[in-house]
Structure of Nitroreductase domain-containing protein:
Amino acid sequence: MGSIQVEFKNSATTAILEAVKARRTHYALKAESPISDEAIEHIVQSAVLHVPSSFNTQTSRVVLLLKEEHQKVWDIAISAMEGLVAAGKVPKETFENQTKPKLNAFRAAYGTVLFFVDYDSLATIKEKFAIYADKFDPFALESNAMSQYLVWTALQSEGLGANLQHYSPLIDEGIQKQWNLPASWKLDAQLVFGAPASAPGEKSFNPLEDRFKVFGK
Ligand SMILES: Cc1cc2nc3c(=O)[nH]c(=O)nc-3n(C[C@H](O)[C@H](O)[C@H](O)COP(=O)(O)O)c2cc1C
C-alpha cells in the first residue's frame, strides 16, 4: 500500500490489516499444527457463525477434517484421478510426475477445511424475492468465499500455512459418501493447512494506481 503512515483509533485495525498482508499461499506443509485442534475448530466455527450472507440466508456449510480424516480427502482425489488415467482421460505420465506428487503434498499437511454451499436452502427466499432470484446463487458463493478468506487469514495468523484448492466435481461423490453429507451441500473449495515447511514464493503486485481510485478526499 501507499508509503504514508496512517494511525488508527483502534490498534485492532492495524492488527487486521497486518493479518491480511501476512496471509499467503503455502504449498509446503507439515502434518503438524502450532495450535490446538480446539483453536482451529473455534476459527472455523467463528467463520460459519459470523461471516455475513445475503439476506442473512446462512448458506455456507463447512467440514473441518484433521489428521487421518484430512488424508482421506486426498486419497479420494488420488483415486478419482487414477480413474481418469484408467479411462484414458489423463495421461499416466502427467498423473505420475505432476498430479500425484501435488496431491500427496496436500495429503502430507495437517488438515483440510471443506467449504460447501447449500443452494437448495435458497428455494423459499427465491420465491419470496423473485426479483433477486438469479442473484441468490452468486451471493451464496460470495459469502462462502468470505468464509474461506477469513479461515485462511486466521489460520495464518496463528502460525499455520494454507493453500486453497478446487477439486470439485472430481471428488464430490467420494466426499459426500465418506462423511455421509447431505446431497444439497455443493462443494466449492478445499483449504489445506499445516505448519509451513518453507517460506511462500515471491508475489508480485500490479500498480495500485491501476486498480484503485478515490474521489472526494
Ligand atoms: C478464488 C481463488 C481461487 C484459487 N484457486 C486456487 C486453486 O485452485 N489452486 C491453487 O493452488 N491456488 C488457488 N488460489 C490461490 C491463488 O493462486 C493465490 O492466492 C494467488 O496467487 C496470490 O498468492 P497468495 O495467496 O500467496 O497471496 C486461489 C485463490 C483464490 C482467491
In short: The CA atoms of residues 54 and 139 lie 6 Å apart. The mean pLDDT is 97. The two ends are 17 Å apart (CA to CA).
